[in-house]
Amino acid sequence: MDQDTSSSRIFLYQDLGIFLYMAAVLAAALITVLTDRTLIYQHVVLLMAMTLASLLLGLRARIGGIVVCGVTILIFAIYKLYYNFAYSVPIEWTAYIWPFVIIIAMLGMTAFISYFSQVEGVNSILNQRLDELTVIDPLTGLENNRSMVSSLSRYMALSERKGTEMGLMMIRLRYAEELKKVLTSVQFNELRHNLAQSVQDIIRVEDRVFSIDDNGSLAIIYFSTGASFLKGRILTAINNKNLLPDLNQQLLTVDLSIVYKQYEKELGKDAMRFITELEKEFAYEV
Fold first, then answer.
1. CA end-to-end distance (rounded Å), the chain
2. Over the range 22-54, which residues count as b (16 or more CB within 10 Å of their CB) and which as e?
3. Measured distance CA(266)–CA(276) in Å, rounded
4. Number of neighbouring beta carbons within 10 Å of residue 247
5. pLDDT per residue over 227-241, tens digit each?
6. Distance from C-alpha of 191 to C-alpha of 239, rounded to nearest angstrom
């Protein structure tokens, strides 16, 4: 409840800030349009200076905005006082309003940017936390790379302790970037989905498959010593299947690059080292 109240207060102050700024801009515009035409250039210069200061504040250059605001008011005051004392030119009533208009505009913009930055910061933290908690790839329905690393570390510890046979296999689409250029984003996503589904249908129930990037790459944590047999089954199944049946009756040839590595006790529980050593095998896989 307190958090909701705090958020509502932030939005209220933010709205109040932009309201003050818009009110000041409206007042400046009315002064410029409705007062004596002989003062039009003076009002335009002040309006431009106020706009410049507001722009700097909007760009988070707070000191620059404050300096422009202060210098504008100071120069304007000196200018009006000099003409009043030197040439007995009366000071018009709008001259007394302009400093307040400029200051209100600056206060309004400052409030808006300050509270807007708070909202941006909160949203950034929430998005980061959400990203950290998300372990499912929405397109394929498979667990993602973060989940794979976490699971791999646990299975490595289990294998080290109990001697369970296990290994890691990675599957990549050859020429993924070229396929992205040929296919639409919808077609490429359909290709990713069908590839993931096909691999899921091939592996054993106890093995686990993960979607590890947006290029269709997959990883499999398998629990056997028959990785070469599993690789052959995957290649045979994919080569005999049309992963994009709706592609205007044209058969899309999909080439896969598959590498695997059996777990060794020397790796301990270091999942990242295991993954790094396996990824090096892609350089030799043809």
1. 59
2. eebbebbeebbeebeeeeeebbeebbebbeebb
3. 14
4. 15
5. 899 999 999 988 888
6. 14
